[in-house]
Design brief:
The longest helix is centred in the middle third of the chain and has 28 residues. The protein folds into four domains: 288 residues, 3-Layer(aba) Sandwich (Rossmann fold), CATH 3.40.50.1820; 70 residues, no CATH class; 102 residues, Roll (Pdz3 Domain), CATH 2.30.42.10; 196 residues, 2-enoyl-CoA Hydratase, Chain A, domain 1, CATH 3.90.226. The strands form six sheets. It has an eight-stranded mixed beta sheet, with helices on both faces. Strands 11, 12, 13, 14, 16 and 17 form a six-stranded antiparallel beta sheet that branches. Helix content is 37%, strand content 21%. The chain contains 23 helices and 30 strands. Helix 3 packs across helix 12 and helix 5 packs across helix 9.
């Protein structure tokens, strides 16, 4: 692919991108009878209906454009069939929605809007500019709800992926920054109109940013639209905003549009001679005729009923989903540790969800529904993981590359807590105490908005999941370049481009359904005190722990740091316990469906019997909680830090007919004194929070508190 690095006419481009902004923002308070505000639960969207008949046409406008701009086109099409236009979140009278505003989220909201408004499908989708991206993602996610598609001058795929015309992309980023600045400034006002202005510019800034981020990724993943009736119209008139290369860029845009039409065996390309980007305004009849040609084709295809092949495809998909659903439901019914299902009528749950599962229109819809069902049990360690997303079980632990920094949310702010010496993060100038504001163009708030809450439903687990989401941006494939905007020790805003380096400690899992994990282990002396830190109870931790404890025989005390430790397996956890408990005694009990299993600490030959302090925080989970909570319950260790999230059950897994993995809890963990850690977590004996001011001085307040306690013994 030829890389284009030309300069564009900046002022003209800014004027072009900023045109008609307030058409989407400022609207009369008077609402026509055909216009409705529909609640999606989180916010309301405004839609306009016109005409009668099927299939219904659904039109999604370009960025900054409200549905008012589409009114002439809608009225023309409404002479033939039903037509729906709407204002995306933040436009017109539509309320601001969740961030970030990528096409996946906007497609989901459009689907919900149509369902709430009782508009039956399948639909013929029409998109203009950014709206083309939204409707493509809609068609990919909900293929059974789409009968045809028309794209009016869609943005070139290789451009939004950053492969071509990078100078233009940089200018687009400047425009995004300007819109965000307007939003931030207007948000400070108490005036209602200014608040609405802030919402509008915040929404379009996010849409524009995501067009080159998550939206581009979603569009790039679509390889085909099968035999979906598809018409792609491209503007024939070069845009003078692109200066001396306007004609070259127009040829490039047209070529990309031709290629897009080829994604369907029923695809058709049309060059709108003499039309600018706003094809439906410059040549309205050409746009209308091509849209109605798809309506006619859909009517012809459905007049004799849906073909048998389509019936069979839909039936096969429904059967596949129902088979997987039945495996999940039956597994819980037979093996879930709690025979009362937490008070749920599990048979009623099956009756309620099975029809929804049978009607699922996509894999994504199926996984969303089946996980919603099992989450009603209100416990951790449960969920269905798609076949190609096994890394989602532990995305940080299974990532092959990282930049070598750790962070925590301190009063909602992402603060770097440690930097690995010699890591890319250290080389880029990142230090403990620095505040991360953006990663990959997304703010911490935007990343937090992407997090779906799952059981246990409390503030600590929410904080854990948001922290994990932020950390996940710093882990991935080796060589990945990460853009980080941060505040340094002087609160000056800086930016760093950091490339992920390969991690050490790769371990293949005995259960081949799980991805390889990367195990980190560190032991060091802090004066007369030994300190051991590791991120998982996985091989070879038990051997390295034994060696480290042996080297600390003469230590005045031992600190074991399991902050951020995500858990592991019993065959590793048990030998570690046996090196720390000097007499045989009950340590845990596990309550299953029909039994209670006792687990004992059994002293190893070389037991460390000296003072013991454990460091925990909200990121300590599962086996780390069993480990710390167990030692606390028998009085063997003092716990310092913050209360853990309470994600503490014994998990098993079963493969589903489609290759997905269903994980579920088979036993509930209790410490020796009968404490149930699930939901409760480990409560420190001494609660200590991290402090940014101290981190900037190189002081870990939790570790310092542990050392202080050790000195008092």
């Amino acid at each position: 692919m030829m890389k284009r690095e030309r300069m564009f006419c900046g002022k003209a481009l800014v004027a072009y991108l900023a045109a008609c902004l307030f058409a989407g923002f400022c609207r009369s308070e008077k609402r026509l009878p055909s216009e409705q505000l529909i609640s999606l639960g989180s916010h309301r969207l405004e839609m306009r209906l016109a005409g009668k008949g099927a299939p219904a046409l659904v039109i999604d406008a370009g960025i900054t454009d409200g549905f008012d701009k589409l009114t002439p086109l809608q009225d023309r099409l409404a002479q033939v069939t039903r037509v729906i236009t709407y204002n995306r979140a933040g436009y017109g009278r539509s309320e601001a929605g969740l961030l970030p505003r990528h096409s996946g989220r906007e497609a989901d909201e459009l689907k919900a809007l149509l369902e709430k408004a009782s508009v039956p499908g399948p639909y013929v989708l029409v998109g203009h500019s950014l709206g083309c991206l939204n409707v493509q993602v809609f068609a990919s996610k909900y293929p059974n709800s789409v009968a045809g598609m028309i794209l009016l001058d869609p943005p070139p795929l290789s451009f939004i992926l950053g492969q071509d015309y990078r100078d233009l992309k940089r200018m687009a980023e400047q425009m995004t920054a300007e819109w965000q600045a307007i939003a931030d400034s207007a948000a400070k006002s108490t005036d209602a109109l200014e608040k609405a202005k802030s919402d509008f510019f915040r929404m379009i800034a996010s849409e524009h940013r995501e067009m080159f981020g998550e939206t581009a990724r979603l569009i790039g993943s679509i390889s085909t639209f099968g035999d979906l009736p598809l018409v792609v119209l491209a503007a024939g008139k070069p845009n003078p905003a692109f200066g001396e290369i306007a004609e070259e860029y127009q040829r490039y845009w047209v070529g990309q549009s031709r290629a897009l039409a080829e994604k369907s065996t029923k695809g058709k390309f049309v060059l709108a001679e003499g039309a600018s980007h706003y094809i439906y305004l410059d040549v309205p009849e050409l746009a209308a005729q091509n849209i109605l040609s798809v309506v006619d084709e859909v009517r012809a295809r459905t007049s004799g009923g849906v073909p048998d092949t389509a019936d069979k495809t839909n039936a096969d998909a429904a059967n596949k989903y129902v088979d997987c659903f039945e495996t999940v439901w039956q597994t819980v019914n037979d093996r879930f540790f709690d025979p009362t299902f937490g008070g749920l009528d599990w048979k009623e749950v099956r009756a309620r969800y099975k029809p929804q599962i049978a009607a699922a229109e996509s894999d994504e819809a199926f996984y969303k529904l089946v996980n919603k069902m099992v989450f009603e049990l209100g416990v951790s360690h449960i969920g269905v993981v798609p076949p190609d997303e096994k890394e989602a079980l532990e995305p940080i632990a299974s990532a092959e590359g990282s930049i070598g920094i750790n962070l925590r949310l301190l009063d909602g702010v992402a603060v770097i807590t440690s930097v690995t010496p010699g890591s890319p993060g250290e080389e880029a100038g990142l230090r403990p105490g620095f505040v991360i504001e953006r990663i990959g163009g997304k703010t911490i708030t935007e990343l937090a908005d992407e997090v779906e809450l799952i059981p246990p439903l409390h503030e600590r687990n929410k904080r854990k999941r948001v922290t994990s989401k932020v950390l996940e941006q710093l882990y991935g494939k080796t060589g990945t370049l990460v853009s980080i905007v941060y505040k340094d020790a002087r609160d000056e805003t800086r930016e760093a481009q950091v490339r992920m380096a390969p991690r050490e400690g790769r371990q293949e899992m005995p259960d081949k359904r799980l991805p390889p994990f990367f195990v980190e282990f560190e032991s060091r002396r802090l004066g007369e005190i030994g300190c051991i830190k590791f991120n998982a109870f996985l091989p070879p931790v038990q051997d390295r722990f034994s060696e480290a404890v042996g080297s600390f025989r003469d230590a005045r005390g031992l600190i074991i740091d399991v902050r951020g430790n995500h858990g592991g397996v019993s065959p590793v956890r048990k030998p570690v316990i046996d090196r720390l408990v000097p007499e045989r005694r009950l340590f845990w009990s596990y309550r299953g469906r029909n039994s209670i299993r006792a687990a004992y600490a059994e002293p190893a030959k070389d037991v460390y019997a000296g003072p013991l302090v454990m460091l925990v925080d909200v990121m300590s989970a599962s086996s780390a909680e069993e480990f710390a909570g167990g030692l606390q319950s028998i009085g063997r260790a003092l716990i310092v830090g913050e209360q853990t999230a309470g994600i503490c059950l014994v998990m098993d897994g079963v493969s589903l007919p489609n290759g997905a993995l269903f994980v579920y809890p088979i036993e509930q963990t209790r410490t020796a004194d009968g404490t149930v850690l699930e939901g409760r977590g480990v409560i420190p004996d001494i609660e200590v929070k991290l402090d940014r001011a101290l981190l900037l001085q190189g002081i870990d307040s939790q570790l310092e508190a542990a050392i202080k306690e050790m000195g008092a013994k």
